[in-house]
């Protein structure tokens, strides 16, 4: 596995002809189960293939159980400098419901260790909208965590994945999930609580104080290129070594054994490549960029759409104006972004904006530019 | 005998093949079972297979024209099958099931939609008889057709189920026959059933129809018990038609069908004279002249004859291109020999209207051609092109009644594989205008309103009228309470109530038609565990307190949802519509008020709350292709939504409100 990861990293970085790697994120599944040695080997390969700055952000996703104190130290020694802990909940019943193996105490213990090893660079995840959860029980749990956490918090609404036992129980009606209104209330109260203790909501689900933003995820939301390595990983980059100029969406083979065979056979396990058109890239830039509090600045947009400014795209649309009038969206000299209220309903705003983008793009093309 | 059945015409493709081909194979055993003189009688035809029949051998006094009438499922079609078998018209096989019911829906529902006719040859006491069985449509929706069919008859066989007894439709059918002064032969069927109680039924017949129980024939059409007796009674009791062959031709069109190769095939009964190939005939209704190409009898397939004579029943083909040229009830006569048309001709008058739209607009042309083909055989359906902002291009179709509508829809689906959105049925209202200006505009004082958008304002109207029907319900007495309550909620007024035997009650109510077009029958059936039967007949128009109800979305009226309702029902209807809309309109970025209003007065309201949160929580590290696809699909859907003010309404929302509700 280790040699395959390095082999694939090497192949894909060369393919992209990227000169500088700004961050590395070990995530998906339970990467903290991997050995620190594997992490170190991959990082070494990356820095051999491209420039990896000494202070580049290297994040590891860790589950409380598998991240004993000594292992965490080992990861730090291998180059990891940021930890993201999947605490999920501080209620043991909720943890069982989510199928987690750890307890609230174990989670807090891991957090304690992590804060010592990665001060100012430890993030925690919490989930809301769980069956049986109320606004006050949710707020209570968050309050408790806020006493203990470091400078970064991610809050996710429960999404029911098909095939999980939770999904089946909810489908059957044996587990009542909170109503839409209640979930909205949970989100709203959490945003306010975090704001009140000095956190900046720099993205829909992410909060940081003392400037502890995740640079890796931020560049993802800003539409930067990323190279996905390992079974089931996703990537977005231009395979310049093949003389291409358009960005590709790439998916690596999901099943580990087949992935390894493919890597051994041809250096990488890319299962699917989809060339993204310029419009598709713009759509992703729009969808991702508006998730951040800064939104999409004019300069940022200009990097992707050289011929059409944000004003050209959205400035004359009645429907966009309506959204501005409703206090949900702002288009000004800084760029395009959501208001506090608008961020919570971004997916509704995006439908109008995507249609407008498509329209302006078609008009522009029709006029022969 | 053979020759009568070997000619299979292309048009009857839905007829079971067994009827024509099996006849050849089974002929011998059939003949063995027939009385000897019967076989002798059939011989003249067997040697001249391809020759046309000479119908002159049947003088008027040897002709009997009759129908079988019955409530649904009482065994009308089974009895017809047996009569056809006994007379050798069709071969006796166990596959002869409802030979005359040719449509799939007829067999499925056990009803007869399209009347069929069969000429039977029967020898009785040394005489050869021509018995014309004129089948009638089995539902009140087609009561006009029934009355036309009956006017070609001199007698009827009234079939009553020995177990179920007299039902609502038995009553309706009896009165039609009684009013036409026809000889009535009461037959109690299904005496082989375990629960059969023919005595009780005889008592009912005596009480309700004033027919002595001695006249009733107890039969089992299924087993053939006593069926021969029925035929003999037809000969004994039904008088021959009172017509004269020397009179000029006078033929009643009592049905018509359409054949792609030969055009319209009109079923006719001759009230005078004779008709043959080459004759020039005129339609009394359209005044158009045609040259006769072919005449013949139905056995039940078309069997050409040299001529048809007064008193006989058969078919005629004369170059008519559309069924509207051979309208039911019309009279045909010879060119330059006009006759007084037979009384009672009416053009079909639709009483129930419904919008019909293709589910997908790209299916418009296919649906159009399917509807055209179906209406070729059914001139009583009226078609007007219509378009709805929400549902696209479609039609507003007029039907004789609710069953007619259902049958039409079912045939579209079964025979043409068309999938349609059918809107809730409405009835034609009338308004008596008081405004001089409007009267001048319409050229008359009383106007019919089918489209709610054209409903005139109360200020320019002296009164509104709604169509009513006289409904007959027959039920076991334990359900009376529930049924009376149901009728009251439907604004019905009781006219009569009587026990027809110790346990069964007949109720008569005047109903506003619009109260029964939607789900009355289903409600009645479900609260009586299926035991109550219902039938109705037209009872004219009555004054009604009608109002136009608008549906508003954030204060903007939705044109396609406007409806005409009775004032007493406005709240219930309005509330139901608002509730259905609430479930069908997705949340938006602002609150949506859904209101039902009479003029400026809001009578019901529902609210769709604004979205407070609609954003995917977790979005990093992984693949956003799925998310992008989902968003783009939603954005595409947003484009297709209809905007009422700034409220976006998906097509599904309109469908869920406008569509006929199959259950409530």
What does this protein structure show overall?
The complex is a heterodimer of chains A (369) and B (664). Chain A has helices at 2-16, 36-49, 69-77, 92-97, 104-117, 135-148, 165-172, 180-196, 215-221, 256-266, 278-289, 298-304, 310-314, 318-325, 340-343, 346-366; strands at 20-26, 51-62, 82-88, 122-128, 152-157, 200-203, 206-208, 234-237, 248-252, 270-275, 296-297, 329-331, 335-338. With 369 residues, chain A is an alpha/beta fold. Chain A folds into three domains: 19-210, Aldolase class I (TIM Barrel); 220-275, no CATH class; 285-366, Arc Repressor Mutant, subunit A (Orthogonal Bundle), CATH 1.10.10. Chain A is globular. Chain B has 664 residues and is of the alpha+beta class. In chain B, the strands form seven sheets. Chain B has an eight-stranded antiparallel beta sheet with strand order 11-10-16-7-8-15-12-13. Chain B has a six-stranded mixed beta sheet with strand order 2-3-1-4-5-6, sandwiched between helices. In chain B, strands 21, 22, 23, 24, 25 and 26 form a six-stranded antiparallel beta sheet that branches. The longest helix of chain B is centred in the first third of the chain and has 17 residues, at 17-33. The two termini of chain B are 54 Å apart. Residues 1-49 of chain B have low confidence and may be disordered. Chain A binds chain B through residues 25, 27-28, 155-157, 159, 180-181, 183-185, 187-188, 204-205, 217, 220-221, 234, 249, 251, 274, 280, 283-284, 287-288, 291, 322-323, 326, 328, 343-352, 354-355, 358, and chain B through 587-590, 609, 611-625, 627-628, 631-632, 634-635, 638-639, 646. Chain A: This is Radical S-adenosyl methionine domain-containing protein. Chain A: GO terms for molecular function: 4 iron, 4 sulfur cluster binding; coproporphyrinogen oxidase activity; heme binding; metal ion binding.
